[in-house]
Specification:
It is a single chain. This protein is α/β, with parallel strands linked by helices and 322 residues long. Helices cover 36% and strands 21% of the residues. The strands form 3 sheets. It has a 9-stranded mixed beta sheet, with helices on both faces. It has a 4-stranded mixed beta sheet with strand order 6-7-10-9. A two-stranded antiparallel sheet has the order 3-4.
């Protein structure tokens, strides 16, 4: 595997890679694991991957969510979550809980796990240095925000010093009002602002499926048009939709590739970036030019290359998936 990784190490030296570590991935573990130490083991494995990426010259930026953790604390405090169209209604009390969990708990846990390996990680939120400027999405949702502007200077300074920024997705409006923002959207916006080479989403599924109910229909490679078709056809639904939309927007805006992986699989990040086969779904600007296309007999939509079990694929991407 190390020999296979060498060309990719050379290729991605100095490349910015934005990694969104989802709350669902953080709350889970590899399917074969489990037990009270599973979450800590999954986080430790993720931290090792990020540190190795930095050690071979890549410039990782971690963006994290924490929805399950926010829900857990709300339950402990006797507060019932309310959702509209998949978004958490966030009143002032819920916003305080979200800030406590994202900035004070999840962010600290990730920073600590990375810093076991050296003085590398620095935690911050979108409120710091006006990193994420936001506005209210809908008054009915309370303090739920949309990203208006990303000011990447603080991230660029940290990267220039060899550090790993870890970003909690709380933004602020012009008056200083804090907003809880969807972490998928924030990761995509940061990748665009940094002109990242890669945008990676670690979640609790193996990637995109041409048929959401068929694990064998994993889509190996697609492009923004293919993603649009999957959303229209209902192949991407629920919590996958914000990730798909963010991937499509980021790649159209010039981000090199976007990836959706199962973050519960040990070292999925390294397997996707440093091996020819990869382990999830990769989004490129033009899947047809990359050698994807639709597999014969597969109704996967334009610009989609199904993986194993979904019919004959059009062959590997020249030069490997990464």
């Amino acid at each position: 595997m190390l020999v296979e990784a060498l060309p990719y190490i050379r290729r991605f030296w100095g490349a910015v890679v934005v990694v969104k570590y989802g709350g669902n991935a953080l709350a889970g573990a590899a399917p074969a694991e489990g037990g009270p130490g599973a979450e800590a083991a999954a986080l430790a494995s993720f931290a090792e991957d990020v540190v190795l990426m930095r050690s071979v010259g890549m410039l990782p930026v971690v963006v994290h969510g924490g929805g399950p953790q926010i829900g857990d604390l709300m339950a402990r405090l006797g507060k019932t979550p309310e959702f509209r169209d998949g978004l958490r209604v966030t009143d002032a009390e819920t916003l305080d809980i979200a800030r406590m969990v994202l900035v004070g708990k999840v962010n600290r846990d990730i920073v600590s796990a990375v810093n076991v390996h050296g003085a590398l990680a620095v935690g911050l939120s979108g409120e710091d240095a006006r990193l994420i400027q936001a506005s209210a999405r809908d008054s009915a949702l309370g303090f739920v925000g949309d990203v208006d502007v990303v000011e990447p200077e603080i991230l660029q300074r940290l990267l220039a010093q060899g550090l790993i920024p870890v970003v909690a997705t709380i933004g602020a409006g012009p008056t200083g009002q804090a907003y809880n923002i969807n972490a998928d959207a924030v990761a995509g916006a940061i990748a665009e602002a940094l002109s990242a080479t890669k945008l990676v989403y670690l979640t609790d599924v193996a990637g995109l499926r041409a048929d959401p109910d068929d694990p064998g229909s994993l889509v190996a490679v697609t492009d923004p048009d293919g993603l649009d078709a999957m959303v229209s056809a209902g192949a991407a639904r629920g919590g996958m939709v914000p990730k798909v939309e963010a991937c499509a927007r980021a790649v159209r805006a010039g981000v090199g590739q976007a990836h959706i992986l199962d973050g519960r699989v040990p070292h999925a990040l390294l397997l996707e970036i440093f091996t020819d086969a990869g382990v999830g779904t990769m989004v490129v600007a033009d899947a047809a030019r990359a050698g994807a296309g639709t597999a014969p007999g597969a109704a996967a939509g334009p610009g989609v290359q199904p993986g194993a079990g979904a019919g004959p694929a059009a062959g590997p991407v020249p030069g490997g998936r990464p």
